[in-house]
Amino acid sequence: MGKQDGADLEVKYNTAKNRFEVTLDGGIAVAEYRREGNGIVFTHTEVPESMEGKGVAKALVTSALDFARSEKLEVTPQCSFVSGYIKRHPEYLDIVAADYRQRLT
Known about the structure:
CATH topology: Aminopeptidase
Number of domains: 1
Strand order of the largest sheet: 1-2-3-4-5
Order of helices and strands: EEEEHEHH
Helix content: 25-40%
Number of strands: 5
Oligomer: single chain
CATH architecture: 3-Layer(aba) Sandwich
Largest sheet: 5 strands, mixed
């Protein structure tokens, strides 16, 4: 376990910039979103090359989806990484917007 799977990473919810962030080794990784009514649209995930392979993207997306669930927000995964993550983790399908859900199964 440890940093290789993202378990020890701190994810910050930055409402001012509409993104979830992880800062590590002088770099910053982000999962960007926009709010739309009772939903949240994940638009982009970016992890600097220096942070790859450390579970950063997984930590970002897991935290973002867990946040959406806790806030009862309907998720629209426009970002390909978020879509792929949900495909591999179907326990999040119940919070995905119905018109996107069928694309992920």
